[in-house]
Amino acid sequence: MTRIPDAVSVASLDTHRLIVAVPNEGPAEISCNLPRTVAADVLRQLADNLDSPAGRCATAILTGRPCPVHDAPSRPRGITSPSHVPFVNVDDRRPTMPLDPSDVRGALDFNAGRSDQVLASLRDVLLDTETPREPEHALAAARILLEAHARQIAALVEAQHDATHAKWGLSRSTRGLLTGYSSARKTVTAYADGLAAEQALAEGAASK
Fold first, then answer.
1. Which residues contact 69 (CB under 8 A, 6 or more apart)?
2. How far apart are CA 24 and CA 26, in angstroms?
3. What crossing angle do the helices spanning 36-51 and 101-110 adopt, rounded to 10°?
4. pTM to 2 decimals?
5. b/e per residue 109-131 (b: at least 16 CB within 10 A)
6. What's the whole-number average pLDDT of the chain?
7. C-alpha 51: how far from its chain's center?
8. Lowest mean pLDDT among 15-19, 34-38, 62-66, 86-90
9. 80 falls in which pLDDT band (50, 70, 90)?
10. b vs e for 143-177, b when ≥16 Cβ sit within 10 Å of the residue's Cβ?
């Protein structure tokens, strides 16, 4: 007989940034709105915690206190005395993946509902100081963010064009203004398309 739960907890990406679901049958599912490298690091930390004997050894269970061996902070291999070197966390020595274009696009997707999507995404990319970035990584991020910003501006210009046309219509006095709006939108859109083409070429060359 199928057991019917008394209550069901609902989690969504509106309230959580990373959701891991492991059903009784079938593959696990992961829903995430974090940058790929951040999500991978969170999952690695969870795996490390599950593998660790911290808090579960006989000493910790009997005394109810952290075990001085299993619950002690991790130190570099070969070091037996904490007085010789400063504390180094194991996670600090794990190689970190460099900034990837998908991380920048992920930040844009995550901030899609904000009043200024590009500004919020630029903030997130700049605050992620732990991710290594070479000049080519920074250039890729700049292209992606500037392209998104240019399309924002083009959309604003088009909205102004439509509002002016709806309010005043097309006449001799508004024709020049409406034409100027259309020209500005096309110019900004062409700039965004150029950035997108350059980034596509760069990503294609990097994948070879």
1. 57, 59
2. 7
3. 90
4. 0.56
5. ebbeeeeebbebbbebbeebeeb
6. 79
7. 27
8. 86-90
9. very low
10. bbbbbbbbbbbbeebbeebeeeeeeeeeeeeeeee
